């Protein structure tokens, strides 16, 4: 039962989360931001990437996918909550990155649950 989705470092959904997080975290390098937008994107992007790496290393970690969904939602609402919705580049990065993170986390959830049950982890 060593399918690609149950082995560490092989799940495409988690790799997508890592890439999304890195792009969001580095996005202040090529767009105009203020201090709040920059740190919000860097911190949330880094958290998305780190959680994606954790999910890659431990494929049966179901709560990691739940954390991704929460981080994606936080990223999506951050332009309004943190007050940088007037910065279009930063806002669109947060909105698109947030939606993609939620979608990747939700898509990986059933796979993580199946891996969790297969591995017999509780």
Automatic annotation (TrEMBL):
Domain of life: Bacteria
Ranges annotated as spanning the membrane: 12-31, 37-56, 63-82, 94-112
Keyword Lipid biosynthesis: no
Assigned keywords, A-Z: Membrane, Transmembrane, Transmembrane helix
Domain SPW repeat-containing integral membrane: 13-106
Protein name stated in the entry: SPW repeat-containing integral membrane domain-containing protein
């Amino acid at each position: 039962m060593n399918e690609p989705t149950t082995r560490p470092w092989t799940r495409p959904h988690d790799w997508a989360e890592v890439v999304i997080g890195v792009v969001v975290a580095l996005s202040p390098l090529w767009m105009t931001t203020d201090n709040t937008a920059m740190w919000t994107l860097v911190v949330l992007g880094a958290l998305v990437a780190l959680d994606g790496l954790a999910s890659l290393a431990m494929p049966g970690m179901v709560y990691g996918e739940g954390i991704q969904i929460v981080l994606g939602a936080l990223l999506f609402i951050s332009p309004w909550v943190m007050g940088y919705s007037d910065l279009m580049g930063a806002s669109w990065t947060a909105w698109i990155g947030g939606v993609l993170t939620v979608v990747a986390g939700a898509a990986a959830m059933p796979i993580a649950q199946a891996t969790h049950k297969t591995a017999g982890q509780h």
